[in-house]
Amino acid sequence: TSTSSSGGYTTKCGTSMASPTVAGVAALMLEQFRLSFPATADPRNSTLKAILANSAAEIGDSGPDYQSGYGSVRGVPAVETIIEERFLEAEVAQGETYSFIILVDPEDTELKVTLAWDDPPGTPNVDPVLVNDLDLRVIDGNSVTHFPWTLDPATPENPAVRTVADHANNLEQVVIDAPAPGAYRVEVEGFNIAEGATQ
User: Fold this and answer.
1) Would you state the pLDDT for residue 197?
2) In 3D, which of 78, 101, 93 has the Cα closest to residue 132?
3) pLDDT score recorded for residue 9
4) Cis status, amide bond into 128, omega within 30 of 0
5) CA 138, 143, 149, 154 torsion: positive or negative?
6) pLDDT in tens, 6-40
């Protein structure tokens, strides 16, 4: 819903409305970040991207797909993520693993961790285009490793799976359904860092 040139409000829909909607939500996120952390530099582009994907509402099948990505953007949860400081910016170099602990409470129905980074430009007409490859995984209290969603571009109609590391994207998301309460170790590995340390 937006203002109309003839007065009042009108409803518009379609992919052409996606860009202004996401840009507006990102502006609100940035405004909140500056209010919450006035002495801190603005967040990285990839931080905003990770928060948007992490707080999106699921559309269709579980996980990302080639039609709707990680779902429908939700402004209030995205801004609340900033207010509650449920994000982290860090750096990892080639061969290093950055890790931290997340505590899951008994009432939590899902654990969702999203990683994004600003990848350097790839070489034109070269596949894969990913320059720096980070790998996200979450390890539970039983030492079970949980992998991010991955899609198979050769069969785009197939749903996303959570069985292998993602070596194709600079946005990765691990989701654990009905997690047992306790401590979970999040690991970000600098699997193949071609250009310096990645943030």
Assistant:
1) 57
2) 93
3) 87
4) yes
5) positive
6) 888 888 777 778 888 899 999 999 999 999 999 99
Classify each residue of 94-114 as buried b or exposed e, where b means 16 or more C-beta atoms within 10 Å of its C-beta.
eeeeeeeeeebeeeeeebbbb
CA 78/CA 49 separation, integer angstroms: 10
**What is the C-alpha to C-alpha distance for residues 20 and 1, in angstroms, rounded to an integer?**
12
Neighbouring-strand partners of residue 134: 190
- Taken in order 131, 52, 86, 30, is the CA torsion positive or negative? positive
CA distances to 149, 168, 171, 177 from 136, in Å: 10, 12, 9, 17
Tokens of residue 176, six digits: 């654990």
* pLDDT at position 11: 82
What is the per-residue pLDDT for 44?
A: 96
Enumerate residue ranges in the chain where pLDDT < 70. Answer: 196-199
Question: What pLDDT sits at residue 29?
Answer: 98
Distance CA 114, CA 56 (A): 11
Instruction: Please tell me the distance from the alpha carbon of residue 6 to that of residue 9, in angstroms, as a whole number.
Output: 9
| C-alpha 151 chain-centroid distance | 15
pTM (two decimals)? 0.90
User: What are the start-end ranges of the H helices in the chain?
Assistant: 18-36, 45-54, 75-83
